[in-house]
Amino acid sequence: MVKNNNTGGLPNRSSTCTTKKPANSEDLIPADKPADHSIPAASPELRTTGQGQLGFPDRVYLLASVIFQNNHLEKPAAHRLVNYGKERGLPLPEVKDEEMHRTAYELAFKTLKYQELLEDIMSDSCFYLTQPMPDDQMSLFAVMLYDFQDRKFLPRERHGEEEIVQEVKDVESYFLRFKTKLAASLARCRIKHGLLSIEHILPESVKRKQQRSSSLPLYAWVNTLKSSVDDVQSVLKSAGFLQGKSIGELGGQTFCQDTHCGDTLVFPAQLKAQLYTTKLLSDHTLIIQDKSCSLGPNAVCALLPEGGDVLMSGCFSGLTVSHTASLVAEKHKANSNVKPTVYVCVSDRTDAQREELQQAVATMGSRNVKLIPEVFQSLDNRHKRLQRLRVILLTPKCSVSAVSNPVEFILQENGDTDLLQDLSQSSIAQSKLDALAAQQRKDIDHALKFSKVLAVVYSTCSSYKEENEEVVSRALEQAKARSGQEGEPKRGNFRLSPSPFSIPDHAEGPMKTHPFFMLEPSEQRNGCFLAVLSREPEPVVKEAPNEVLIRANAKGILDRIGSKQRTTKEQHRHTNRTTKPTHGGTAQPHLSVSVHSKNQETMGSYSTALCGHQAFTNRRQSSQGKAKEMRLQPSKNTVSSSFSSSKSESIAPRKSITAVLNTTPRPPATPLARPRRPHQEVLKPVALVLPRVHFPDFFPPQLSRTGCSPSLHYKWRPPPQSVRLPRSSGGLSKDALVKPRPLF
């Protein structure tokens, strides 16, 4: 059986960025080896022949054994055939080569999938009983046994430059002595279970994922900071590649453009090694990455407004950060004043991981990325660097249950390696699933609390509803309940928005679970889930003009225009002007008759005159002078309504005079805003007959009692005949205007 875990590799993230060159057909010419070589030039340690895999370096076996020890399935004591010891969480041996690191994880993951079969072989061959070995070395024996049977029990070739680990050498010598018994035990197990190959012993779901992983096409996005999609396509065509219309047409040396992400190209799986030997990848113009990692950045780019920033939180690699930064920079490159910034939460990263992320971003040519060491839960819009934050991209830790090649995905996107044992059996433990969903709810709940954020993009690679629809639906309910609480500032609620990606017509497109965007895993791609939560706009409230004036006056910006209330200064000035002390210690209220402001002092002295006839006589000359001044005022400022010929107008002055005589103190009346004058009819002029200036003769009998002296009583006397004023057509006669009688 030929192993297929070395048919490709990850890009060397420690390489430096080269100078940008114009895209041409020379970018596809390999530098050292021919294009049809079966492995990348960056992995000289892994060599293959036509007969199969010759083995791995000792360091790979050692690292794989530690990974298996930390993640193997611990069986009950009654059903335990092999004891691996009780130690868990062992530190991983240091491996500097990225390819060796990935190969060790792949070897450990396959050993986890066949753990039960390998234990049956060790038990049936009596190797575990006849060759006593320490329990802590059984993990090394398990991973080497899987590789040994995969090589058809052929010896491993060594080279002088390779490092020799004594533990690995000892276990390999045991295998060579017992290879016949081990091969016979494997044959008996296959006959017992009726297996054509050992793959048939796996659960159906695991076997289906394993088959898909071998045929998954390559997805590569174009780094628009170095080139354009059209230029890269032209280079590929000039080098002999044919462009197809869909993934179904891929075969041989062809490529096509992805349906959902316009900057992503798709290649057949067999071209992986060839692409890694080209300058398109070495210059970081074309980046190979899973499609599920490209959907989030493309959604963010479509939602980000001009002048806004992006915040990323969760599990992602430097490739995902660089992809997001390149997309938003390309979209807003026309605006030279404000450049969008991509902020990345790295609180859960080690110093080495942060340095690696910064190096990867710098290699891609991204300059608009800034790392935030604070925990995501402690951030909000009050952070000085997040004032322009408008979109949040959440890619939290998930079960990766919708990914057919989980090891490669987890390693490239900094996923949770503790899930390897569950993924090897294609069933996530309920306790782990609940823990993942709880953290996901915390992240999305906090993201919806940002007051200036317009949209939140939530993306996972899980096939469980507990991590997808249920998390989003619960977050929306929590946000709605929080905005309705008393004391909570009113903000627009979030809602599910349609996906920014187009839906293809064929049946393999996104599911009909609207409005969520979901891709089912298939032979053409891994599965993923994406939801866009956008903020609803604030409702527009149309205020009436008077409501606008009231709100503006409350802020003191319109100088009390249209308000019925006076300011504190105006009330104080009005009180000092209208309130006069009297013998009774009371103040007279404002007259309801329209009188000029200069006559208020004269009218205020009326109540004082009621206290005694002698006091009134002493002020007689002063009153005559002021009365003359009143007659010289315009007609709208004189007391004329009390003597009108109309019946309704003759009642109003009596009420006003009664208010003057009333000694009950009242607070100053609030001045009203001058209303718009209604249409008035022109009345005929009348002749005023003024009484003699005798205070007791002015008031009618029903008003004879005053508040100053209850014993005073005055009688009404008709005016003398000698004071009669003639009626004229134009108004008062000249004599009446020149020689008027005083008011008292």
UniProtKB/TrEMBL annotation:
Region (Disordered): 1-51, 478-498, 561-590, 618-653, 710-744
UniProt entry tagged with the keyword Metal-binding: no
Domain SAM-dependent MTase RsmB/NOP-type: from-to ranges: 208-536
UniProt KW DNA-binding keyword: no
Residues annotated as catalytic: C461
Keyword vocabulary terms for this entry: Methyltransferase, RNA-binding, S-adenosyl-L-methionine, Transferase
Binding site for S-adenosyl-L-methionine: D348
InterPro entries given in the database record: MeTrfase_RsmB-F_NOP2_dom (IPR001678), NSUN5_7_fdxn-like (IPR049561), NSUN7 (IPR042620), SAM-dependent_MTases_sf (IPR029063)
Domain of life: Eukaryota
Gene3D superfamilies (alphabetical): Sun protein, domain 3, Vaccinia Virus protein VP39
GO terms for MF: methyltransferase activity; RNA binding
Family to which the UniProt record says this protein belongs: Belongs to the class I-like SAM-binding methyltransferase superfamily. RsmB/NOP family.
Protein name, UniProt field: SAM-dependent MTase RsmB/NOP-type domain-containing protein
Organism whose genome encodes this protein: Zoarces viviparus (Viviparous eelpout)
